[in-house]
């Protein structure tokens, strides 16, 4: 009896100590107040409405009895994900559709936390640690030069050129196919696999994510279209993972494999068990799902910013011209001499985080934070965009102001916690393992683009801009600017010659 009373009181105390949020309806929860989780802007509005963003930065809500928490403060994210990191590193069951049905739960990004995940991260780190990434410098510079060449040849379709050179670089790192890679069949498949990932990897995007019982519907059932779709996507994913692996394995057997992530692991671990093969396949896929669109989205966002802020572009170009001249393109070795270009990149990551709601995590156990009860199994959604526009950390937070990242500038609040946060790459145990490579790839691409091209909004005959200065993004886990018009004009007639010399 005493035990029952105790349990009832404990339950009541926990229930009344949940973080603030909209009142849930019976069974349905907050289905009518909570926006589509892929719509990050709407999530930010929710945070403001119920969590008053910066004063009570946690909002609690439920969907069909499944609890979720939206965090919009750097302080809370650091406390939970870094100081209590072990409790908030899981992703199991976050997406039934993407994880279990399509099969992404075998990949690093959606895998449950545990020894297998730790092993996969260690494998990735053999290629993605800062020392190895530095060795990839020539490849990254070549990848940037190939993008410039595409822009030079076909500036009108610039938007289409953002991803291929990054895919090529990552295919090269993973599987070591020689440039040009058009004939490597897995590039197109990797692109497709990513597209699937972006559609299914956001928690609660499909009805089956919050009503897992639906996964038991047979494929032929009239409303089970998602199951038929999942089967098709799973087939494509398996072909990508194991198909590319088999090609490299065969090259290793014949003794013709060049150095790559996959070939070096095959050689180091042969004879391979099935577990080893799975580990190599699925970590290699992590390069594409993690690396291609994030990097391409960052460079596309940068082009959008340059077309909207000509003064910033002029200053970045002047810095490059003064530091290295005009008879060569910048390299990664030039980065220390280009603080303003670096600041432009950091400011872009701040104002337009590429993964604005992070990749959701799940609490493994019950926890308490600042008097709030956080139940086990709760889904954590990270409001990165709200965090990076926190007026307590960033002065004039809605203005694109790269100089705030220059140590000598008065608006540089470097001593404020969170100011130089790497939150664009996530937090805690699941922080992006490709962050060193990703940041260098973005830097070299934006530095060479500014060195080589003038980017401007198209103008009419009166010299006025013909597009409106709106920042518009496609919803999804990784957000891309919506296609927009802009003119990309070479700064010098010698650009083609310069590119020839950069061994494209
Ligand atoms: C500008 C470039 C990039 C950005 C903005 C970015 C961002 C992110 C973010 C926000 C996460 C989720 C972290 C979390 O849950 O806290 C993540 C995870 C991940 N990223 Fe990146 N990333 C980038 C480049 C790359 C590259 C180049 C690779 C691989 C070569 C990569 C591989 C991964 C993988 C495998 C994960 C899953 C990690 C896990 O769940 O344990 N990323 N990334």
From TrEMBL:
Pathway(s) it belongs to: Secondary metabolite biosynthesis
A GO molecular function held by the record: oxidoreductase activity, acting on paired donors, with incorporation or reduction of molecular oxygen
Names of required cofactors: heme
Gene3D superfamilies assigned: Cytochrome P450
Swiss-Prot/TrEMBL keywords: Heme, Iron, Metal-binding, Monooxygenase, Oxidoreductase
Pfam families on file: p450 (PF00067)
Binding site for heme: 432
Family in the record: Belongs to the cytochrome P450 family.
PANTHER family in the record: P450, PUTATIVE (EUROFUNG)-RELATED, P450, PUTATIVE (EUROFUNG)-RELATED-RELATED
Protein's UniProt name: Cytochrome P450
Source species of the chain: Stereum hirsutum (strain FP-91666) (White-rot fungus)
Phylogenetic classification of the source organism: Eukaryota, Fungi, Dikarya, Basidiomycota, Agaricomycotina
């Amino acid at each position: 009896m005493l035990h029952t009373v105790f349990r009832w009181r404990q339950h009541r105390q926990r229930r009344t100590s949940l973080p603030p949020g909209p009142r849930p309806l019976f069974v349905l929860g907050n289905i009518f107040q909570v926006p589509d989780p892929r719509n990050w802007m709407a999530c930010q509005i929710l945070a403001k409405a119920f969590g008053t963003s910066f004063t009570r930065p946690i909002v609690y809500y439920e969907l069909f009895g499944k609890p979720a928490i939206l965090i919009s403060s750097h302080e809370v994210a650091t406390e939970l994900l870094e100081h209590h990191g072990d409790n908030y590193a899981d992703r199991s069951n976050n997406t039934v559709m993407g994880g279990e049905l399509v099969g992404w739960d075998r990949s690093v990004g959606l895998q449950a936390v545990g020894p297998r995940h730790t092993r996969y991260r260690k494998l990735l780190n053999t290629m993605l640690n800062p020392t190895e990434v530095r060795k990839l410098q020539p490849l990254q510079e070549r990848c940037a030069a190939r993008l410039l060449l595409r822009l030079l040849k076909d500036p009108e379709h610039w938007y289409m050129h953002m991803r291929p050179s990054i895919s090529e670089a990552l295919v090269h790192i993973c599987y070591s196919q020689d440039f040009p890679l058009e004939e490597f069949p897995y590039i197109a498949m990797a692109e497709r696999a990513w597209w699937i990932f972006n559609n299914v990897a956001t928690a609660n995007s499909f009805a089956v994510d919050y009503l897992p019982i639906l996964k038991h519907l047979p494929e032929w059932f009239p409303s089970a279209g998602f199951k038929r779709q999942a089967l098709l996507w799973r087939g494509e994913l398996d072909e990508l993972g194991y198909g590319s692996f088999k090609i490299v394995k065969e090259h290793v057997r014949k003794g013709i494999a060049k150095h790559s992530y996959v070939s070096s692991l095959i050689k180091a671990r042969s004879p391979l068990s099935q577990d080893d093969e799975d580990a190599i396949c699925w970590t290699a896929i992590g390069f594409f799902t993690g690396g291609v669109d994030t990097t391409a989205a960052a460079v596309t966002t940068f082009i959008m910013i340059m077309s909207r802020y000509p003064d910033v572009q002029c200053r970045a170009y002047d810095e490059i011209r003064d530091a290295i001249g005009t008879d060569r393109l910048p390299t990664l070795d030039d980065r220390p001499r280009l603080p303003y270009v670096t600041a432009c990149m950091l400011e872009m990551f701040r104002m337009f985080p590429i993964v604005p709601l992070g990749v959701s995590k799940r609490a493994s156990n019950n926890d308490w934070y600042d008097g709030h009860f956080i139940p086990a199994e709760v889904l954590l959604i990270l409001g990165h965009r709200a965090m990076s526009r926190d007026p307590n950390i960033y002065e004039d937070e809605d203005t694109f102001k790269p100089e705030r990242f220059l140590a000598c500038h008065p608006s540089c609040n470097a001593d404020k916690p969170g100011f130089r946060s790497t939150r664009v790459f996530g937090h805690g145990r699941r922080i992006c393992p490709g962050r060193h490579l990703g940041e260098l790839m973005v830097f070299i691409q934006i530095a060479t683009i500014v060195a080589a091209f003038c980017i401007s909004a198209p103008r009419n005959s009166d010299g006025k801009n013909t597009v409106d200065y709106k920042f518009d993004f496609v919803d999804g886990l990784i957000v891309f600017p919506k296609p927009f018009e802009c003119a990309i004009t070479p700064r010098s007639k010698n650009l083609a010659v310069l590119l020839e010399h950069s061994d494209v």
